[in-house]
Amino acid sequence: MVLAPLRHQALDWATDCPLTTLALALVGAGWLGSYVLSFARMLVDLARPGIPLKRFGAKKGAWAIVTGATAGIGRDFALQLAGAGFNVFLASRTTSKLEEIAQEITAKYPSAKTQVHAIDFSDPKADYAALKAALDPLDVGVLVNNVGKSYDEPTFFQDLPDQDMIDIVEININAALKVTKIVIPGMVSRKRGLILNVGSFASLIPSPLLAVYSGSKAFLSTWSQSLGSELKGTGVEVELLNTYFVVSKLSKIRRSSWMIPTPKTYVRSVLSHIGVRGGAVGQPHISTPYHGHAPVQWVVDHFFSNSFWLNYNRKLHLDIRRRALRKREREAAKAVKAE
Ligand SMILES: NC(=O)c1ccc[n+]([C@@H]2O[C@H](COP(=O)([O-])OP(=O)(O)OC[C@H]3O[C@@H](n4cnc5c(N)ncnc54)[C@H](OP(=O)(O)O)[C@@H]3O)[C@@H](O)[C@H]2O)c1
Asked: Is the distance from the beta carbon of residue 261 to the nearest atom of ligand 1 less than 6 Å?
């Protein structure tokens, strides 16, 4: 009843207005409607629970493998997957740190078995045969390709030390490919598995002055989507985790905020949203599950052009570089004074 006068007014307006105005209004309403629907889809997605970890063998003796498991995001994956009922296989560079985290897991979750495996993923000749021999007997339910290396500070490509360039490709790309190749046959034969690849917003928007890191994460994104599609129907899920800032040594951010979670909060949100797209609305095999990151991706995907965002990132990284160089100069001056 209340809406009747409004309906009449709208009908009168539609009858009186020229056809082109009406057509433009309809196109505008459709465009706006698609944005509203997409935003609503993201909110609904973030509110719904993901695929339960039981589907991948939690509490049934399955193992979760975490690369780069001794610090930051990887450490929390190891702890929380153990808490969820997986045995945990920890692969990182430093044996002493691996043993420390294994002991922490055993103290917190006595029923979780642990295995540690020291491997330097930056080494192109790393012993992947030994890693395969350790993994083959295990019922692997989850693989988290987490290990990653970024720049010390934003740097022009031509100034990036060759070794850093090689390490980033070896750690961020080749390690993920090689470890995944080891576990897929077992996962497919058991008809269950979850492969989580830790990606970055540096691939959502290409990142000047972090070009190699950005490109390596773009590789992970494209590869994850292709692999996820290849494995459709096998029971193995592949997901690229689109990650914005998280407190860690790599990000050099020490204080958390709504948009920058601690690894604990970030990993909790990932593990409770498996199979949920979140901010990556309508993008198969990509997930932006953290509520502070999802709207950022949504805005990047829906507003402004690629060149706008590329320029935005260029200015941002030039600024970070300037500040990093100034800090280094201050520290050098302090060191000279102290001598
Ligand atoms: N933090 C962020 O803001 C952010 C944002 C987007 C994406 N990401 C991604 O998230 C992932 C984890 O990052 P993070 O911030 O948690 O890093 P982090 O705190 O620096 O931890 C890195 C982990 O990787 C291990 N590691 C490093 N180099 C290694 C090597 N050559 N071989 C074997 N293990 C190695 C380290 O252990 P050892 O030192 O004992 O070897 C440590 O366990 C990375 O892929 C990163 O690109 C992070």
From this structure: no
Average of per-residue pLDDT values in the chain: 95
Q: Ligand 1 centroid to 68 CA: how many Å?
A: 6
Tens-digit pLDDT profile for residues 194-247: 999 999 999 999 999 999 999 999 999 999 999 999 999 999 999 999 999 999
**Which residue, judged by its Cα, is nearest atom 44 of ligand 1?**
148
Residues acting as catalytic residues: 213
Atom of ligand 1 nearest to the CA of 167: 31
Binding site membership of 198 for ligand 1 (Cβ less than 6 Å): yes
Among protein residues, the one with the nearest Cα to ligand 1's atom 40 is 94
pLDDT tens digits, residue range 85-95? 999 999 999 99
- What does each C-alpha distance from 8 to 17, 23, 276 come to in angstroms? 14, 19, 42
Model confidence pLDDT, tens digit, residues 276-298: 999 999 999 999 999 999 999 99
Average pLDDT value for residue range 22-48: 90
Q: Give me the domains of the chain, ranges plus CATH numbers.
A: 47-302 (3.40.50.720)
Relative to beta strand 286-287, strand 140-145 is: unpaired
Q: Which of 122, 150, 250, 297 to mutate to test the pocket of ligand 1 (most atoms within 8 A of CB)?
A: 250
Q: How far is residue 172's CA from residue 199's CA, in Å, rounded to a whole number?
A: 9
CA of 6 to the centre of ligand 1 (A): 58
Output the CA torsion sign for 219, 220, 221, 226: positive
Neighbouring C-beta atoms of residue 176, cutoff 10 Å: 25
Indicate if ligand 1 lies below 6 Å from the C-beta of 80.
no
Strand 114-118 versus strand 140-145 pairing type: unpaired
**Sequence-ordered list of residues with C-beta below 8 angstroms from that of 281, at least 6 positions apart, any chain:** 38, 41, 42, 45, 298, 301
| Exposed / middle / buried, residue 251 (Cβ in 10 Å: 0-12, 13-18, 19+) | middle
Banded model confidence at residue 2, pLDDT cuts 50, 70, 90: low
